[in-house]
Amino acid sequence: MEGFKDVILLDFWASIFGMRARIALAEKGVNYEYREENLPNQSSLLLEMNPVHKKIPILIHHGKPVCESNIIVQYIDEAWNDKSPSLLPSDPYLRAQARFWADFIDKKIYEGGKKIWTTKGDDQQVAKKEFVDSLKVLDTQLGDKLYLIGESFGYADISLIPFSWCFYALEKIAKIDFEKECPKLVSWVKRCMEKESVAKTLPDPQKCYDLLIEMQKN
Known about the structure:
This protein is α+β, with helices and mostly antiparallel strands. The protein folds into 2 domains: 4-79, Glutaredoxin (3-Layer(aba) Sandwich), CATH 3.40.30; 92-217, Glutathione S-transferase Yfyf (Class Pi), Chain A, domain 2 (Up-down Bundle), CATH 1.20.1050. Helices cover 57% and strands 8% of the residues. Strands 2-1-3-4 form a 4-stranded mixed beta sheet, with helices on one face. α1 (16-28) links the parallel β1 and β2. The model has no long low-confidence stretch (mean pLDDT 95).
């Protein structure tokens, strides 16, 4: 039986990517030691465990590192495959679909949201349109389903739900009406927030707004 120290997560409280790992660990009921990293002054353990990218999150399992958030979530699902629920579908096609949408989220949602709060004026308006268009694609993918790939919360949802933490901030910064632009996605966020793993992981949205405003100043 694994002890508490056999699983360590190196993370930062506001990391959307770290939230993915935390939600996945909570879904699987895995006990782990959480270690908060000071990103400007990275620990020697972080540099040892991820010498390539030198970034969090890093999952350390029996002394071996797993890096990159979506890879970590897949690893958690496979390493603790005896624990329910399964995060990736058993059907190969649906599993491929889950990976496709997780990739879409990384390329479109992360980059799109970042462009909004790092630009101003016309550039911000262009970034806003691109971001909203990407959200509308996800809104269409949801359709009448409860979750992105079907009737159960899983890998693709874990990939996306941490970004909802920023919706309040982006609403204030760029005047995005999420309820109007992507109503199904907004309903999906509320549904996900009913899950304990999500509700306990995502911080107060006001903290995201405060953080982005501080980063804009700097």
